[in-house]
Amino acid sequence: MGSTVLSLRIDGELLDRLRHHAARRGMSVQDYVVRTLIRDDFDERFKAAVDETEKFYGLT
């Protein structure tokens, strides 16, 4: 799997908060943001799978 560049503008306050969160985990800001996006994507896919399973078994 290759990688692609994503560039975005954020204000200084948000960047400082991201730096703080990343530093607490011993990560770069880039790694922290990527892991956060991956986690959010997983959460959405997991919820969709649970919803489909509940529909299949008639639990909803």
Automatic annotation (TrEMBL):
<dbReference type="InterPro" id="IPR010985">
    <property type="entry name" value="Ribbon_hlx_hlx"/>
</dbReference>
<protein>
    <submittedName>
        <fullName>Ribbon-helix-helix protein, CopG family</fullName>
    </submittedName>
</protein>
